[in-house]
Write a structure and sequence with these properties.
The structure is a homodimer of 480-residue chains. By secondary structure, chain A is α+β, with helices and mostly antiparallel strands. Chain A has helices at 13-21, 56-69, 120-128, 146-151, 159-162, 197-201, 235-249, 261-270, 295-298, 307-321, 334-345, 347-350, 369-383, 411-427, 443-449, 452-465, and strands at residues 26-27, 49-51, 73-76, 92-95, 102-106, 111-115, 132-133, 169-175, 181-184, 210-217, 219-220, 224-232, 253-260, 284-292, 327-330, 358-363, 388-394, 399-405.
Chain lengths: 480, 480
């Protein structure tokens, strides 16, 4: 029996979307499954569809249609975020993965012009051919894309020298919630022409529009690296070492990463084939990397020694003599350098190797990190004496990735520990959200700790730019 | 005869303002005169009154009152801006000059916490005691204040190494148009907690609120400077020199300032007692300054030479040999360094020594500066064959301060030249506003050249945050 169709296919949004971007780029059901979960595998959702537009004009048309039908849009690029920022129950996920062109690299001006779907590691490869670097780097660089890095203002391991993603961006192209295309693709180092909408869009987590292209700053590739694992008596001693090295080298520290004994032990448990950094185990282990920029740093002296490396080893030897350095292993080649980095870059797996885990991405001024660690230990063990506290820190910029493995399975107790950690961060003038962003996971902390006037301004801006609340609704901003 | 008063003094806004900040800090008439004109003396206005609040709470109360009475507020700090950004006909000028405390300098964390009324030179003095610098510097530093520098995202001579004012700011306190106080006084290098309202307020020229305090980044004071005037055959040759020096020194260039022959001649005309930089005059004169950060740059070698200076002079000698350097004078002491800088810092006077002047604060990518200069010469002389073109440029960051002295007094012709210059800047992907901001003067250019979608977003934000349009009305945004 044949039924008369009582719906016009042209009023079906998915049909219309197929008209805009091509039906094969409107994915549903099993085709959409790779986007229907986050990187940790813990969070899952059922998107209405996944859209894979080819260019900015298609993105613009999709947003116009979404406004007309009041459909929610969740932008996604590499989908490596850790705060459920791409969760999309019933929403249209808009993937930037097909917009992956590196449009231009201009070595003289030290800029790259890229589309949002460029994978960060691919940009590293392309800039390397010009002896330049795009300095942003973190564990997920092999799948994370520029668009997501910009939308979340990603940080990583080299912030101490190069800043966060926003510091590496000169210009942006953004599709506004209305579907208008905003061209802010400035290549300039000075451009005071009205409100800085670039910085407003960077870190907005896709709630104010979709970043489709960017002008990025490049830096000269260091002529050589000096990389070491060192052990010192305390976190404050590590900071003294950092300041000493910055002073001695004219600011050549590229990375300064803290790993406590508990992290090294967890790493060796998770990767039994791996080697410990030292013969003896130490409480405070630091990965330090220097990058040489001047030929005076790398031109071998009469004795054949490389000035930066010799200087570095000289400082370490002096500190070893006076007891402020307990141990040190300096990489002698790139394989040893890679082994040192592998330990640090396994942290995303190591800190999630047990469940449940209380994890926090927090920041304090560097001179308050030791106090923070002491207070976290005190507060968390007061709540759960059997808790195992660990973590890693980008000590050079004050960012701690805390992980606590509680001894009992009790969500209320876990929340209490989470809350206690955040309270100590706030008491020390720190932030409950350093580099991973807010997404869904941090909205309660945002509601509790963010300045109320600032929240009011954010809500006013969101309402002004996205009156139908189609862009990544329910993320970043807590309910009023 | 005694008249009955038929106005209640308590409904007089100036009386109420006196109640808030003290009557003696509500200035009118002759007392207000120092604020009733801009630095150039060309623009004048009659403010309703000048208010000099003592603290943030008073600023907040003033803004609440201004909203109630729908009074316009024009914030002012050093009043050194060049785009009529503080013109205040009939408005309340709110001067931050009494809020001048340097609250704290934390050398270990390399931050300064200051109120908006701190004069930049005073902060230089205070940070110098800790062997640190606040790197922002420009000619008006002896009267310009931090609040104005932040509100306009001031640039200056050291942007090539340290960035603009926004790059030197970690946190802000802002009184919103509503009178609410927004606390964004973060001391952190990573703080992804919602929209970046700090960067929205920086450069908003007081149209979205009043910046009352800030957390600023400090940098280590260079161990030594190497400063020189050099002459090269062309602007492109100057750029090649810049890139060579950056490469040779690992990025130690602090300033790289271009002065054409016409500027040197105008300077010697304006300051007859001054000396020319070279015995012979040259078309392309460059002030270059390097800052040494590492002890390896400054520890004298066996022959007593300072490595950075020796290296610098070695590069210059090599370029002189191969003909890409025409002349060079290296400062041998701080008096010679001061003489070299005095020439550059006189530019604000030199470029305004004749009237009328067509002046423009514009930017292009550094690799397009020579083309821009050639096109300006061609376009302007086509309109006025007798025009004298001059200017100075922060060549290291692509910012040109163009000045044209037309041969005839004809406002329509002047506007045509102004327009032609801007057209060439835009055609080269540049900006009609580099570091001085928009104020009143650049609103026509803003209307003509700024991306329309961006203007729409700016207007939506302005309306959302300042619905009564009390904050510096008529500045920055062109009419819709």
């Amino acid at each position: 029996m044949i039924h008369a169709m009582n719906t016009d296919p042209h009023s079906d949004p998915l049909f219309e979307l197929g008209q805009i971007i091509g039906p094969k780029y409107v994915l549903t059901g099993a085709d959409a499954a790779p986007w229907a979960r986050d990187w940790t595998g813990i969070a899952e959702w059922s998107p209405l569809a996944v859209l894979r537009p080819a260019n900015t004009a298609e993105v613009a048309a999709v947003l116009k249609l979404a406004n007309r039908h009041r459909l929610s849009i969740v932008p996604v690029s590499g989908n490596t975020n850790l705060v459920k920022g791409t969760s999309a129950e019933g929403a249209l996920m808009l993937s930037l993965d097909r917009m992956s062109a590196i449009r231009e690299i201009r070595p003289e001006a030290r800029i790259a012009i890229v589309e949002a779907g460029v994978i960060i590691a691919n940009l590293h490869g392309a800039t390397g051919e010009h002896d330049l670097i795009f300095p942003l780097t973190f564990g997920a660089r092999g799948s994370a894309m520029i668009g997501g890095a910009l939308s979340t203002n990603a940080g990583g391991s080299n912030v101490v020298r190069y800043g966060n993603t926003r510091d590496l961006c000169l210009g942006l192209e953004v599709v506004l919630p209305s579907g208008e295309v905003m061209n802010l693709m400035s290549e300039l180092h000075k451009d005071n022409s009205g409100y800085d909408l670039r910085h407003l869009m960077i870190g907005a987590e896709g709630t104010l529009g979709i970043i489709t292209a960017a002008v990025l700053k490049l830096a000269p590739k260091p002529r050589a690296y000096a990389t070491a694992m060192v052990a010192v008596p305390s976190v404050n001693a590590a900071l003294a070492l950092l300041n000493r090295l910055q002073d001695e080298t004219g600011g050549a520290v590229e990375a300064f990463e803290y790993m406590p004994r508990s992290f090294i032990e967890a790493y060796l448990e998770r990767f039994p084939e791996a080697r410990p950094p030292f013969d003896t185990s130490h409480e405070v282990n630091i990965l330090v990397e220097l990058g040489a920029r001047s030929p005076r740093d790398t031109t071998p002296g009469p004795d054949g020694s490389v000035p930066l490396a010799a200087h570095f080893e000289g400082v370490l030897a002096e500190l070893f003599e006076n007891g402020t350095l307990l141990d040190a292993v300096v990489a002698q080649n790139s394989a040893q350098r890679a082994e040192i980095w592998a330990r640090r870059e396994a942290s995303a797996q190591v800190l999630r190797m047990r469940s449940p885990v209380i994890d926090n991405d927090i920041a304090v001024a560097t001179d308050r990190m030791q106090t923070l660690l002491e207070r976290i230990e005190a507060r968390s063990t007061a709540i759960d004496p059997g808790i195992l506290n660990t973590g890693v820190a980008h000590l050079g910029d004050g960012n701690l990735h805390y992980a606590g493995f509680p001894s009992v399975s009790d969500p209320a107790l876990h929340r209490a520990i989470q809350r206690a950690v955040e309270e100590e961060v706030i008491a020390l003038g720190g932030s409950f959200s350093a580099e991973h962003g807010i997404g869904l996971s941090k909205r309660p902390a945002m509601a509790l700790h963010k300045d109320k006037a600032a929240l009011g301004v954010m809500r006013a801006i969101k309402t002004a730019l996205d009156p139908n609340n189609i862009m990544n609704p329910g993320k970043l901003l807590p309910d009023a």
